[in-house]
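Reopening this one. Same input as before:
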Amino acid sequence: MPVITSKKLLKNPDLIKKSYEVEPNSLLQYPDKINSPNREMVKNVYDGLKYSVNYLGSGVTMKGSDVALGSNYFIESGKCNPETSSVKCKDKKKYTYVRNIPTGTIPPLNLSFYNATGCNLTGITEGRGLVPGLFEQLYDINPVELSRGAMAMGNLGSDECKEMTLPVGYGIYDESNIGSTWNWETKCTAGHNTMTETTNADLNYEIKSRNRHIKNARMPGPLQLRENFESEASTEPTKSGLTIILLLTGISALVTAKACKVL
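Same output, byte for byte:
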């Protein structure tokens, strides 16, 4: 299979469509076709978890297989600033990194079970399924991020480019798929302005190791209320900061609930 690139994905919409396909499941409808009731019962329980918890919530099966949907790629979005961009990106084409595959972190607090504990409960806490992914997608286009883009700031609007090597394609959390469904691609981008880590330790490590020229390199993402990496100074929010964050979250929840009732 030819190497996956952003250009190939954009020229072949069927590849992007394929990244959203859900693995079908066979259902035995007749008792006489069931050889082992116990085995079939276990299979049904596993399939039930796969479609209710794994696809919708975690994006990972109970056996650790990646089932997160979507695809990531670079799109051309202008030209890099010849004065403020890095040496390798001066006067080069600027690319914006389109991240459709969920990272597993919860915006705007930039929190996850992995971020809090350093590990995951396989198939349960990764947060890369459809539901948390939808929440991430909505936050990606929040008014603040769009306003920053309109003012030539942030990942969307800035023309201060640096080279970044990031995963493109689909199935990026499965290393065995590299070269078939996804690959690493290097482009000049402004995606270094605000970033967020994923809930996959291996991918986080690879992104950092391939972008050592960028401090705390992670997956490009929207501006968050807190950073999720440790620096020399403590990054833990103060009690007053936590109070403000909780109040904002509560107000947002109440507004959303009210809007749902109105609709």
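So the earlier flakiness isn't reproducible anymore. For the record, Residues 118 and 201 are 8 Å apart (CA to CA).
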